[in-house]
Amino acid sequence: MHPVLAEDRARLTELLRSVSELAGRELAAVDARPAARLGPAPEPQPLPAEGTGTEGALARFAERWSPGFSGSSGPRYLGFVTGGATPAALTADWLTAVYDQNVGSGIGSSAAALERETLAWLRELFGLSEAHSGAFVTGATMSNTVGLAIGREWLGEQRNVSVSDDGVAALGPVTVLSGAPHSSIGKATSVLGLGRASLRRVPLQPGNREAVDVAALADALERMDGRPAIVVANAGTVDTVDFDDLRAIAALKERHSFWLHVDGAFGAFAALLPSHSHLTDGLDAADSVCLDLHKWFNVPYDSAVVFTRRQDLQVRVFHNSSPYLGPPSLPDPDFLHLTPENSRRLRALTAWFSLVAYGRDGHREIVARNTGLARRLGDALIGVPHLRLLAPVRLNTVCFTLADDPTPDRVQAAARAIAATGDVFVTPTVYGHVPALRAAFSNWRTTQPDMERALMAITDATAPVS
């Protein structure tokens, strides 16, 4: 054994204690860490010929790289939809590396059974039916891609061809219908060989909505002349967290043939709130569902889930034929037969810990608190003369812009000025053809004082220079 590696092995407990101490200091100061770092990164250094050991690597990391990391796990990082890591999730993430289970195969470990238990709990949490089976993947993009891959195989089934065997060319032209699809849907159509041109946008409801006009969707399906399609519905859009009428869309299956995929990456968490659960009514009717846990579930990157009613088609797409891996036996095939990956880390452990530690009520409280803070920020921005709220605050995201001349350059400059304060980070977008900014509340740490500090930073950084 290499002498440096041997020394690290001998001192492993001591080294882990050092890492724990560094982590403790960083977490204790996360509220004070700037929400965004805009300065230049360190210059690259050559590959080390001789190692310094873990202690030396830790010291070099703390000196060169840690100071430039953003406070993305902190309470005022309101960019994208980024959760933090609750104490239970962080504990589980460390243990995931300690046990280092390859959960792709169920041979020789109970790790796969833990994932199945966790999936059953999540299915219940979001109100899905027992017909839905799930699997952990890396994020919403992969969840959407897997869901659409199963839908692609369903299209083949309707046309009496096997896409997994004969390729996507056997399908002929494919149509994917959606009102306001997330950009990852277009990416998925490209990855799956359906082509970005297959994604056709359906008119939205009037009144500056992001929800699809169900009548217009019905007309688009009618024009398919009986040809099957894929419909992507939204349980929470990116800019304004608008919801398609999932139940009404599902009812269209009585007259039309389509695979219903619901992108509920973070909006599906509305199901946890009695006051908002009507927004996810009909989620259980979906053929496949995307849920992203490193968003509002507050587990570390990367963690998401895809659920589907057609696990048989999922296996047909993703099964790995090799004697040493075993056959994809239903109803509980190994997870390597359900996702693009063969080898998989035990992503389920962070979710399992979180559900055991905080239960349904704990996660409901996070969603309720974030939703309330978003609403209060939106209400406050209405009273700021130089800013303009662009849409109602439906859940956890506030979409706003400059009241005067919101050009792309001016809005981008406003985003940089807000980030430069270090107090809050928001991301630019375009809503209704208007360059805008969006603040998304999804971190378990965020409280009323954080919202007030964010409001002050946003107001001051965007104020006109007199």
TrEMBL record:
Region forming the signal peptide: none
Supply the InterPro entries for this chain. Aromatic_deC, PyrdxlP-dep_de-COase, PyrdxlP-dep_Trfase, PyrdxlP-dep_Trfase_major, PyrdxlP-dep_Trfase_small
- Does the UniProt entry include the keyword Phosphoprotein? no
Cite the Pfam families for this sequence: Pyridoxal_deC
Q: Cofactors per UniProt?
A: pyridoxal 5'-phosphate
> Keywords of this protein's UniProt record, alphabetized?
Decarboxylase, Lyase, Pyridoxal phosphate
Superkingdom, natural source: Bacteria
Region of interest (Disordered), residue spans? 33-53
Q: Which family does it belong to?
A: Belongs to the group II decarboxylase family.
**Protein name stated in the entry:** Pyridoxal phosphate-dependent decarboxylase family protein
